[in-house]
Design goal:
heterodimer; A: about 260 residues; outer membrane lipoprotein receptor (LolB), chain A; 13 strands; B: alpha+beta; two-stranded antiparallel ribbon; about 15% strand; signal (chain A); TP_0789-like (chain A)
Chain lengths: ~260, ~500
């Protein structure tokens, strides 16, 4: 009997992965470092890792995710996200679709609360508990580190469109990561991630992600538009757009249940 | 003819040991057939009535989804995310159901999935977490029912405590086993009137609702119903499953939010310069953001879509009329051009019904293989027995018996032996099934539940199955003797007489 529920469970994962996609969007931010003649590949990876490191800073932005599937109506989710990495806190407020407006997710350490304004109720779960019966992996909920999780197998030169790039071929060091092999296309003249390819264990290309637009904010580079192409189900793609980004300090009350309740009042 | 028969019976007596071996084999064959078909029949009838009496009805009407087949469990699509279609033109569909003959009763419903959850984790509950309650034990397969008609149609739902859901009453009905598991997980004993916080999942997202426990039920037949089955008022279900008025409103997006979706080649995005805009980080007023969202969401309250149903389940006045009624309904729907389809209980049970088919097919295949093996063994024994009588055949032919006479003699022998043995075998089969029934063997797992067609092993031999078993074994006996006899008849009488 449980087979139905296992099958159905992706709905839960879908909601959880929404948060993940938003967090993942931040991975593209790159510090402004001028490319060297032949940089050390590991150092390059560490630079990329620093992008997602918002230590000591708060971050907030509005994300819009539009997903297209052939023969289906586009699915749209818009949310405002607030992050404070030093305390492992985040708050996601759903803005679209209209029926889910005001719903929110609050994370503090290993606790996650989902809030539904129509019943004014919270639902608590712990990150560990959630992972027990879903397809989600630990890596989906923690900030990934290329340098820690992957080893560089090769570094070659190439071009992407009109840009000369370093092509880094990475192999997973642990089985905690979602993809066994990742290929990164890093712009040479100014270190920034332009494209990422994810491969499965048997070498099949699963997903291609492009980062063609950036914003420079407080000395950091953030990707503002991301295109994700599903290489298995051709034609399925998502665009993530980031707007209203800010690294200004947020009041502490943002990361509280009371704030979620205030929003729907 | 009389001579042949007399000789045949004399031969059977003369070759006692060989006759006994073949007879036992034929009897065994008949026994296997009788017992086997008794099981298959019991399984089929038991499963059908268990499903149709408990939750599928005889006739199941649903909308059509391009993603996959629709059942009470939703759409069986590869990703499992497809929305269950709502019955289009419901009033018209309902009037067709009402005007179709042989329908004894009907009710409408919608289903959905949810999980029991809680507002916060207390230390007491954290301890309960370490107990055996898995997160799948907290899943609920919700039946949003039309309380006015549902309970008349499905009277197998027995109330242990509390009452059935009444029309218009918000609440939940959970099973006795759910009550125990949920009490364990929440760290407090649950009873009628206590509220449960449940989180619904659908393609439209998640929704939380707190609902009182109205009743605790138990199903009279526990054979094939989902353990996670719980009943809920239709209004709450509609909200939780995204069957709401505003669910399909178009969303206005800015051009830059969809600008890249026309691209299939990621590399083409890097033809021009990668834009890096300069941003300035100004402080954000979180209160203003909160106030803005609050104001907008207050303008559009969530309203359940009145009259939205996913399914109509109906019972026929007699099992004989089910298929006829389904055909009549489908013809009417096609004539009116409404994209809905009627099916039987197995369509309603969806993946559940299919797993039953698999078990039954495997069981039937096992019986067929067993029968083939039995036939081969019988044939082999016949070959040996006839070959041993080659000299006898030669002698008969030498003193003037024609090939036809010899063949007739052996046919009579084989048929008579097969008839007697299979009758004995079938009789033993009845005895075996009676003993199995009397033992009252209980099904310990899902596999046996399906095989037994209910909670207890209950094979019943029908007259038809008994006659079939006897006829099959007589035919087997007849076919099995043809080859060795034709072999023996090919040998010249003179040589045949010399054979030892």
């Amino acid at each position: 009997m449980n087979v139905f529920f296992r099958k159905r469970n992706p709905k839960f994962v879908k909601a959880a992965s929404l948060a993940v996609m938003m967090l993942a969007g931040l991975l593209a931010a790159v510090p402004t470092v001028f490319a060297q003649a032949k940089p050390d590949p590991v150092a390059l990876l560490k630079e990329l890792d620093q992008l997602s490191d918002f230590s000591g800073k708060d971050f907030s932005a509005v994300f819009t995710i539009v997903t297209q599937k052939p023969g289906e109506k586009d699915s749209v989710t818009q949310a405002r996200i607030f992050r404070r990495d030093t305390k492992k806190q985040f708050l996601i407020l759903i803005l679209l679709p209209e029926v889910n407006k005001g719903q929110g997710y609050l994370r503090e350490e290993d606790n996650v609360w989902f809030y539904d304004p129509t019943s004014r109720k919270f639902s608590h779960s712990s990150v560990k508990e959630n992972l027990q019966n879903t397809k989600a992996k630990n890596s989906d909920f923690t900030l990934s580190s290329f340098a820690d999780d992957y080893a560089v197998t090769s570094m070659t030169e190439g071009t992407l469109g009109k840009f000369p790039v370093w092509i880094l071929d990475l192999k997973a060091k642990t089985n905690e990561v979602s993809y066994e092999r990742v290929v990164l296309y890093i712009r040479k003249d100014r270190t920034m991630l332009l494209k990422r390819e994810d491969y499965s264990v048997n070498g099949r290309l699963m997903r291609t992600t492009a980062y063609p637009k950036y914003i420079e904010l407080d000395g950091k580079l953030l990707s503002t538009q991301i295109l994700i192409l599903d290489e298995i189900n051709k034609g399925e793609k998502s665009q993530i757009t980031m707007a209203e980004q800010s690294v200004a300090p947020l009041p502490d009350k943002v990361f509280t249940k009371a704030f979620l309740e205030q929003v729907s009042r | 003819m009389a001579v042949i028969l007399r000789m045949a019976f004399r031969n059977i007596r003369e070759h006692k040991s060989k006759s006994l071996i073949i007879g036992i084999l034929l009897a065994l064959g008949a026994l296997i057939l009788v017992v086997g078909t008794a099981f298959i029949d019991a399984s089929q009838a038991g499963i059908r009535s268990t499903f149709s009496d408990v939750y599928t009805g005889d006739i199941f009407i649903s909308g059509i989804s391009s993603e996959g087949p629709v059942s009470l469990f939703g759409v069986s699509s590869p990703g499992g995310l497809a929305a269950t279609p709502i019955i289009p033109n419901y009033e018209k569909v309902l009037s067709i159901v009402k005007s179709t003959p042989h329908i004894a009763g009907h009710s409408s419903l919608a289903t959905g999935f949810a999980q029991l959850t809680r507002e916060d984790s207390t230390p007491q509950q954290a301890n309960a977490l370490k107990s055996t309650i898995q997160s799948q034990d907290r899943f609920l397969f919700l039946f949003g029912v039309d309380a006015a008609s549902y309970w008349n149609l499905f009277n197998q739902v027995e109330i242990v405590q509390g009452e059935r859901l009444q029309p218009g009453q918000p609440g939940l009905m959970i099973s006795e086993s759910q009550r125990q598991k949920f009490s364990d997980w929440l760290g407090k004993p649950l009873s009628i009137g206590d509220t449960l916080l449940i989180q619904g999942f659908s393609s439209a997202g998640m929704r939380l609702r707190e609902l009182p426990i109205v009743g605790i039920f138990q199903l009279k037949e526990q054979g094939a119903s989902p353990e996670q089955l719980a009943y809920i008022d239709i209004e709450s279900l509609r909200v939780m499953s995204g069957m709401t008025v505003g669910a399909n409103e178009p969303i206005q997006l800015k051009p830059e939010e969809t600008s890249m979706l026309s691209t299939d080649n990621a590399d083409s995005l890097f033809g021009e310069d990668v834009t890096v805009t300069q941003g300035s980080s100004t402080g954000i007023d979180v209160n203003a953001i909160a106030a803005q969202i609050a104001q907008e969401s207050a303008a559009k309250p969530l309203q359940a879509d009145e009259g939205a149903w996913q399914f109509i389940v109906a019972k026929a006045d007699s099992p004989r009329n089910v298929q006829r009624t389904i055909a009549a309904l489908n013809a009417s729907f096609a004539k009116e051009g409404i994209p809905v389809v009627a099916g039987d209980w197995q369509k309603a049970a969806g993946p559940y019904g299919q797993s039953i088919d698999v078990v039954r097919i495997v069981f039937a295949a096992a019986i067929i293989i067993l029968s083939i093996v039995a036939i081969i063994i019988i044939m082999n024994t016949f070959v040996i027995s006839v070959i041993e009588r080659t000299s006898e055949i030669g002698t008969m032919r030498a003193i003037g018996a024609g090939k036809g006479f010899v063949r007739g003699l052996f046919t009579a022998e084989a048929t008579a032996l097969a008839l007697v043995s299979s009758v004995v075998g079938a009789g033993l089969g009845i005895a075996v099934t009676s003993i199995l029934r009397a033992l009252h063997i209980e099904a310990t797992n899902q596999f046996f539940l399906i095989l037994f067609g209910g909670k207890y092993m209950n094979p019943i031999v029908s007259a038809g199955n008994m006659i079939t078993a006897i006829v099959v074994m007589v035919v087997v006996g007849f076919i099995a003797h043809l080859y060795p006899v034709s072999l023996a008849l090919k040998i010249q009488p003179v040589r045949a007489m010399q054979e030892e």
